[in-house]
Amino acid sequence: MTKTREDSSPLSSLKTENERLRAENEYLRRQTAHGERLSGSSPVALHGLRLLSAGLFAVLAVILLVAGNVLFWFGDTIVSNDRFNKTVAPVVQNTEVQHAVASYVTSELYKNVDVTQSAQTALPSQAAFLAPAIASQLRGYTQTALEKILARPQFQERWNQLLGDAHAQFIATVRESGGDGVLDLNDLYVQLSDSLKGTSLSFLADKRLPPKVGAIQVASGNWIKMLRTVIVNIDVWRVLAVILFIVFVVFAVLLARRRRRMVVLLSSFAAVGMLGTLIALRLMRDSIAGNVTPQYATAVRETIQILLHPLVIQTALLLVVVVLVVLIAWLTGGSRSAQQVQGRVRLLIAGKLHTALFGGHENGVTRWFGAYKRGLQWTVLAVVTLLALFTRLTPIVLLWYVIALIVVELVIELVAASSSSGR
Fold first, then answer.
1. What is d(CA 223, CA 227) in angstroms, rounded to the nearest whole number?
2. CA distance 161 to 81
3. What is the pLDDT of residues 112-125, one digit of tens each?
4. Do 35 and 133 belong to one domain?
């Protein structure tokens, strides 16, 4: 009896332990299955998040490039007094502008002078009917005289000096308090009318022009506050724009699964952005000119074109740079067409010239260049791109950058040993 009880006790313990092990095994099996499901879905989710982040950084980089391009022009050309003076100096030399300014000042002067009435009073009663014709001729003669004055280099120099002073005063007022958003050019027109002294039209020089004859409303309302914010913070914004652009480009490329393709896409969209900027500038110029009096439309169009000229050149140069990046990224890639071009270049340069310089014996330098050729080429491209971002681009500067880039890339291709030779 006692023996039976003793035998049943270990058996019961074994059953209990067996059930516990089964439960633990089932728990582990479920955890393993759950883990497999997580491990199967996690890479897909991470891959999608990575692509989304790369695309977002790429879009932000392109937006920053387009906005930063305009911001740099605004700071250099509109805010900087020295650069503004150099940019607008050709305006008064433009014949269309001279004609429009002379016509405008003549019109404003004759608002205060009734030439027809004065002629009728001076003429005999039987010749009074000639007064309107005389007044018209005198008006035309006045405009011609003013155009001749505007064409004088001495007067143009004085005009540009007064314009520079007015611009400096406007920027200073906006920077300090915002002001009323009016660019006051009254002194320019007063100077022009005073130039009639000592001529047969000296009687007009004593006539006062309307108080706001040269008032140009640059901004109004909330736009004045926005203009002040931009002028005060533009230097900081430009530095941030460059830094963030570089950061966004780096993250976009690093997060992309196919980095070369991301470089091509980034540069292609940047080229579209630059092209869109050029089109927008053309449309804006025509839109502004279309909203003024028709007789002054051509002069306004010419003035805007001169003022926007630095931005057009800067945008066109950036367009050339990004297109060049697209070409280099494609040529250094592994596509069939790129491989064909690479083969022809190697045959022309790296083949014959490399053999002529180094013979059939490779050394440590040529092997090192061969091993790191792609990295060196991309490094050179990155350095040239950074230099282009931090320096003021002109057609000559861009030409030197392109020549330097091509020469360095060809030198790397020339010195680098082929992969077969390197092995």
1. 6
2. 11
3. 666 666 555 555 55
4. no
Q: What is the DSSP letter of 351?
A: I
Kindly state whether residues 213 and 98 are assigned to the same domain: yes
| pLDDT (tens digit per residue) in 257-315 | 888 889 889 999 999 999 999 999 999 999 998 888 888 999 999 999 999 999 999 99
The whole-angstrom separation of Cα 132 and Cα 117 is: 9
Rounded CA separation 99/200 (Å): 20
Regarding pTM above 0.85, the answer is no
Note whether 139 and 154 are same-domain residues: yes
Return d(Cα 205, Cα 189) in angstroms, integer.
11
Give the count of alpha carbons within 13 A of 183, CB side only: 15
Structural domain of residue 212, as residue ranges? 90-218
Residues 150 and 57 in one domain: no
* Count of the separate structural domains present in the chain: 3
Residues in the chain, pLDDT under 70: 1-11, 31-44, 112-136, 198-213, 334, 342-361, 389-395, 417-423
Same domain flag for 347 and 394: yes
CA distance 69 to 311: 8
pLDDT of residue 413: 74
Distance separating alpha carbons of residues 209 and 277, to the nearest angstrom: 40
Q: Which residue has the tokens 């074994």?
A: 14
Give the integer Cα–Cα distance in Å for 389 and 318.
9
Q: Is residue 321 part of a domain?
A: no
Residue 319 falls inside a structural domain: no
Task: Please report whether residue 112 resides in a domain.
Answer: yes
